[in-house]
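Dear support,

I submitted the protein below through the web form. The confirmation email said the job was done, but the results page showed an empty box. After a refresh the structure appeared. I'm attaching both so you can tell me whether what I see now is the final result or a partial one.
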Amino acid sequence: MLSEKWKKLLQEADFAFQPIVNIYTGKLYAVEALIRNYEEAGFTTIDCIFDSAFSEKVLYSLDILLREKAIHKFSLLPFAKSIKLFYNLDNRITMMPDFKPGYTCSLLNDYAMDTSNVCFELSEKHQLGAFAGVDKLVLNLYKQQGFKMAIDDFGVGFSGLQMLFNADPNFIKIDRFFISDIHMSKKKKLFVSSIVQIAQAMGIFTIAEGVENEEEYVECKRLGCNMVQGFFVQKPTRNVFEILPAYEVLKDITQKDKRNANRINNIEKYLQKIPPVAVDASIDVVYELLRENKHTNFVPVITKDESPLGIIRDADIKSYIYSTYGKALLYNMTQGSLQKIVSHCARADINDPIDKILKIYAFDDDNDGILITRNEQYIGYLSSKVLLDIINEKNIVDAKDQNPLTGLSGNRIINEFVSTSIESNEKVMMAYFDFDNFKPFNDYYGFRKGDRAITLFADILKSSVGFDDCLVGHVGGDDFFIGWEVKEGDTFEKFYAIIKEIMERFANDIKSFYCENGINSGFIVAKNRKGELQEFPLMTVSAAVICSGFGHKYTIDDNALNEIFGVLKKGAKNSPNHITCIDLGVIKPRALHF
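What the results page shows now:
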């Protein structure tokens, strides 16, 4: 029997809902239930509520009543049956003397809902011996009943990886600590990237918690998070009618985000639409699907909400079928659920860039392909052969964009690098090189020697820079480009030294292209643009350099950037050392010289 203080809490407390949405489309996937108005019952924090209930051994009784209140309010959402309710489950309830699983199933039946509509969030706050004994059995029971499981606040506790190993969750919610200002911290990017990679290898969806601005959202999407939650999407609200089925702001950002250039735009044509089987189907359905699809050796298995659970391989069931009692054993094992014979298979979202899809596939050594989802629902399969075809197609597109004379990347790839760098506010250095006095040289010695001068400079570029985190491009004619992603510890002096070495090597090596008179005099006589004879010095090269992401945030479009480069190139040709630089991060950009 609950005391008066707990009855008052149940009377006063309310739940606010906060959306959890697909990071690409902005479509609502779930809402998290957050307790509100508990102060009216005399509690200062949420932790205080559950710690007190635990000490009084009423934690399970209280949680059940709060759970019922949350589910009732959730049911008022017009689209409640098509989304999920994330509910924070204090894992200490299993230590209560009155603990008894099964109540939530009957409660959901009262609201004509399914267990797949509920996801229990487990926290690292209370460490209970790594989910030993009954705790792990209870978690497995919840999962067998169709409930989803999530690890909350992942990364801030001491037992996170141990909990991940034992709980085998469907979701990992990456703690706000790692998300706050992630776009400004290389260390946080490294941690989140590592968490995402572990989750991908285990077939677990990742949710970025506490995203408060566009910069954090874009970085989380870049690092591969599947879903997002936070003030940037919507603050928690007690009014269920303020929850939207989709949040267009994320969809709009994705559409304008030029990082999607690395996405497989026509991925639909590659998908193998292998029919799935529901996890609660009969094994006979699996047999029939394998018979009907003679060119596949497996069947995808989906949960009640159509998210992929894994695959059943024909090889896995043959050992049962061809043994004396194996078929009967298989029928007994799969009564009510196929889960015991389901094998893990990697999965990716249809909006994921090709690089991410390939990384996910690379982590999965046991399978010959990858399951593809849209809004977390299964839509098809990509085999390893198809993945190779996609890579080849991408390589062909990139090859077509290469300059035929130098073999360097062309304008499309250069423009993607520039646009992506500017929009993401990453620290980058970009240098445009332009020959000095190339036209008179070309007119005097002919275009064949002019082409040789261009290939000479391309060779100098290739040998002077590494290609890791660096793009070397040929804009066209005598214009070239280098773009660096600035790493921690990199300095302006480092890039200046590289640029200076390139310029000096070209100025020295190009002399061998001139005749003896030209070398001795230091010039050639050729017609200028007016058709008049004029003395032109031996060729050199000028460099216009833009630094971005070093100072304050800025907004600039491609046209303005091209204008800046144009001004810088003119300035470089008139500069004593033929280099000009501008930092886009300053409040009022100004030309700087190294």
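Response: this is the final, complete result; the empty box was a page-load delay. Residues 384-401 form the longest helix (18 residues).
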